[in-house]
Write a structure and sequence with these properties.
The protein is of the alpha+beta class and 683 residues long. The protein has 21 helices and 19 strands. It starts with 7 loop residues before the first helix and ends in a 5-residue tail after the last helix. 51% of the residues are buried.
């Protein structure tokens, strides 16, 4: 993620810092050398004991990256902690540096892979590479723990806290600023509890409390109704539903009889049947923490399913399942199990057998008050949790303590995304109550990992105000960007549409259907683009294709956009090719006023439908320089992972979207800002 350019002074300071990457303060015990792939960081390893009690032999070499303060030998450092547990931090070193900016003018930045992740003795088990070789998930979990062996007892948060203290001592730092995201906040808070005298400040982004996460996921389920209503703020759901929570509750109740079977069209126009369960619904909502475009489609998709139109929900689920939040190289699943299973306070006796543990947990779930997980159920909470996996984990440590040390009243900034379901604001509020002088900033229209969103300018201003001893200004309530508002209900028939402005009859309704169909492909194209770029994979333009909601498919490739019976409104299909300076679309289908549309001299679509001359003119922000093909191409091309041919294709796409309301056009312009949400440093 690239933040806005720094001031000239800071740029000069950064260049000075780059000349001293290997400098080691007097008293420091870590020997840094220039990193082969970075001019901004020095690389080193620090060897620490596997078991600090000495009962089990062995050591771990912690991989560390250091960015030196521009001037002098810093006596304090910022330690940046990624999420998970299991997330590697080193791949995000540059991101951390850019987010912190001027805060690093007097402090070193230390980024390291926590033990068991990335380059710091990553845990592995062969069973996860061949899961089908095991007859059950329980057998797989047990085998994985066995392959790790007795050392699985030494990958808990207290072990990581002790590693941080070892880094502080070896680096000869008097104080540390702990900057954690998601699970990284839990590590930061536990360090502050154990070593308060060495904590200069805390930056907590998407907070997990020291006692968390709650093993039944109750904070997440409690936040669902609030977040659904927030999505509908500013009249966002006026044409969709009066009560999104009630809609979701009705759909969950319907799914108790069995999954909903939806029909989804793949990128080659082939239909597939897909089962959709209530467990899928909560997974979709949580996936929206990193994918606001997916979440924007959720409310209409649920409402459509209530009305027995499952197409949008089926496609939404298929889209979510085709993506992925973690890179296999940057996330360590065995470490996640070793830490999460050992640390969560599950409602069972650790001495019980796996089946007894499951029975105890299920009994606890059913003993909770009715509606505690509403609009979901206790069964959904069980499926969402780590209970089934960790019931089979052979525990190697005692149960976590109930009581914990108090938190020091050090300068603390707590950031919470108002739409974060992974770590809802309730956790941030609980920590604020324990640190009297802490600042809690709730950021609207934002999910998980607040500072990784380039658009979260309010949060970044607060971060730098905190360290400049300036007032922290609350984020004002603002409506979401146009392309992140809840999407409209997909029409179930052409007759349900109002004609396009200035037209009447079937031709007018068909013209409106064309407009909605192009807008629908625009959203699907953007989702494909975000998934491809956010995954870190090299861009293959031949893969940027999408199935229609009802039938057909479309593709962006080789500088053109092609439609193949692409259908969004039943009975209205688009076929043809759009290039940078030309377009020809055949409008067909059983319900449509058939005809041909071409690109006019002012980039509008013109032609005849049902024998009537029509014109679909631009009515949005299509002419702004910010969204122009050249500006967009330059902006996108800054990302090394994007093939240069994409600029030509985007120019063609942009031509087609000129007739649309401001929305998708803005999304294309904002593409570089949306990408960080898909490549967030923490889970």
């Amino acid at each position: 993620m690239r933040s806005p350019a720094r001031t000239l002074a800071l740029a000069l300071l950064a260049s000075i810092a780059g000349t001293g990457l290997c400098a080691t303060p007097s008293g420091a015990q870590i020997a840094f050398a220039p990193c082969k792939n970075s001019n901004n960081f020095g690389c080193a390893h620090l060897t620490v004991p596997l078991d600090r009690s000495g009962a089990m032999p062995g050591t771990i070499a912690l991989a560390i990256r250091r960015h030196l303060a521009p001037v002098g030998n810093a006596r304090s450092a910022v330690i940046a902690l990624a999420g998970g547990p299991g997330q590697s931090a080193i791949p995000f070193a540059d991101t951390f540096s850019e987010i912190l900016g001027s805060i690093l003018s007097t402090r070193d930045l230390i980024v390291y892979d926590q033990r068991g992740t990335g380059l710091s003795h990553p845990l592995s088990c062969h069973g996860l590479e061949q899961p089908h070789a095991y007859h059950s998930a329980g057998a797989l979990i047990g085998a994985c723990a066995g392959q790790i062996g007795p050392e699985r007892a030494f990958y808990t948060t207290p072990d990581s806290v002790a590693d941080i203290e070892a880094i502080r001592r070896a680096g000869d730092y008097e104080k540390l600023v702990l900057y954690g995201t998601s699970y990284g906040t839990k590590v930061a808070l536990e360090y502050a509890q154990q070593y308060p005298e060495h904590v200069e400040a805390l930056i907590l982004d998407s907070t997990v409390t020291p006692a968390g996460p709650e093993p039944l996921g109750r904070p997440t389920f409690a936040a669902v109704p609030r977040i659904l209503r927030q999505l509908c703020a500013f009249h966002g759901c006026a044409q969709i539903t009066a009560n999104p929570v009630r809609d979701l509750s009705r759909l969950v109740s319907r799914m108790r009889r069995g999954p909903v079977i939806g029909r989804v069209i793949d990128g080659r126009g082939r239909p597939h049947r897909i089962g959709i369960s209530s467990n899928d619904l909560i997974e979709l909502l949580v996936a929206g923490d990193f994918d606001p475009i997916l979440r924007a489609e959720f409310i209409a998709a649920v409402r459509g399913a209530i009305d027995n139109d499952d197409a949008a929900l089926a496609r939404l689920l298929a889209r979510a399942q085709s993506g992925g939040e973690e890179s296999g190289e940057d996330f360590d699943v065995p470490l996640y199990l070793a830490t999460s299973c050992e640390e969560q306070a599950f409602p069972w006796s650790r001495s019980a057998s796996p089946s007894e543990r499951l029975a105890q947990a299920i009994a606890r779930l059913h003993a909770l008050p009715a509606g505690v997980f509403a609009p979901f159920t206790a069964a959904n909470a069980l499926a969402f949790s780590d209970i089934r996996a960790c019931a089979y984990w052979p525990f190697a440590t005692p149960a976590p303590p109930v009581e914990s040390a108090p938190l020091p009243n050090v300068p603390t900034l707590i950031l919470s995304g108002a739409e974060d379901l992974r770590t809802p604001t309730s956790g941030a509020q609980a920590i604020k109550a324990q640190i009297p002088d802490a600042h809690l900033l709730v950021v609207p229209n934002t999910g998980h990992s607040v500072l990784s969103h380039a658009s979260a300018t309010c949060a970044r201003r607060a971060l730098h105000a905190q360290f400049a001893d300036k007032p922290i200004v609350p984020c004002p309530p603002t409506p979401p960007l146009p392309f992140l508002k809840p999407t409209p209900l997909p029409p179930r028939r052409l007759s349900a549409l109002a004609p396009a402005h200035g037209y009447s009859g079937r031709a007018g309704r068909t013209l409106q259907a064309v407009k909605l169909t192009v807008a629908d492909f625009g959203r699907q194209f953007l989702l494909q683009l975000l998934e491809t770029l956010g995954s870190g994979n090299s861009l293959n333009l031949e893969s940027l294709r999408s199935g229609g909601l009802r039938a057909g498919w479309a593709q962006v490739a080789g500088g053109s956009l092609s439609f193949h019976d692409y259908t969004y409104v039943p009975g209205v299909s688009l076929t043809g090719i759009v290039k940078t300076e030309s377009a020809k679309l055949q409008i067909g289908g059983s319900a449509a006023a058939k005809g041909t549309l071409r690109l006019g001299p002012h980039h509008e679509l013109v032609g005849e439908l049902g024998g009537r001359h029509v014109r679909l003119a631009g009515i949005g922000a299509g002419g702004s320089s910010e969204g122009s093909p050249s500006a967009l191409g330059t902006s996108v091309a800054r990302r090394d992972s994007i093939d240069r041919r994409l600029r030509t294709s985007l120019a063609a796409v942009r031509r087609l979207f000129d007739p649309l309301p401001a929305g998708f056009d803005g999304a294309l312009s904002a593409l570089p800002e949306l990408l960080p949400a898909r490549t967030a440093a923490a889970l």
